[in-house]
Automatic annotation (TrEMBL):
It comes from Flavobacterium magnum. This is NADH-quinone oxidoreductase subunit K. One of its GO terms (cellular component) is plasma membrane. It catalyses: a quinone + NADH + 5 H(+)(in) = a quinol + NAD(+) + 4 H(+)(out). Belongs to the complex I subunit 4L family. It is a multi-pass membrane protein. NDH-1 shuttles electrons from NADH, via FMN and iron-sulfur (Fe-S) centers, to quinones in the respiratory chain. The immediate electron acceptor for the enzyme in this species is believed to be a menaquinone. Couples the redox reaction to proton translocation (for every two electrons transferred, four hydrogen ions are translocated across the cytoplasmic membrane), and thus conserves the redox energy in a proton gradient. The keyword Transmembrane applies. Its EC number is 7.1.1.-. The chain crosses the membrane at residues 12-30, 36-55, 67-90. GO terms for biological process: ATP synthesis coupled electron transport. NDH-1 is composed of 14 different subunits. Subunits NuoA, H, J, K, L, M, N constitute the membrane sector of the complex. GO terms for molecular function: NADH dehydrogenase (quinone) (non-electrogenic) activity; quinone binding.
Length: 106
């Protein structure tokens, strides 16, 4: 039985990860909704996590998978805090458009 990485090939993982990361960057740069910006950031983090796991499997080393664990924990904390801030802003301003958030500067 072949390793799954040998069957698919690491270049396909790299290609998929690059596509996901570019989609995330596109979402952050061109979308105005804060929720979609958070989702785009999560897509970028998952693209990096996919590469960590692929290279970890390729090199037969578990350090990449440990990094993925910490990255997912940080991403979950970031989303929890970010969503709390967005809900608070929505209650006060009535919109989560990123353009309105520029008015929060002092």
């Amino acid at each position: 039985m072949q390793n799954i990485l040998e069957q698919i090939g690491i270049q396909n993982y790299i290609f998929l990860s690059a596509i996901l990361f570019c989609l995330g960057v596109f979402g952050v740069l061109y979308r105005r909704n804060a929720i979609i910006v958070f989702m785009s950031i999560e897509i970028m983090l998952n693209a990096v996590n996919l590469l960590f796991v692929a290279f970890s499997t390729y090199h037969q080393d578990a350090q990449g998978q440990v990094f993925v664990f910490f990255s997912m924990a940080v991403a979950a904390a970031e989303v929890a805090v970010g969503l709390a801030i967005v809900v608070s802003i929505f209650r006060n301003v009535g919109s989560i458009d990123v353009a309105y958030l520029k008015k929060l500067k002092g």
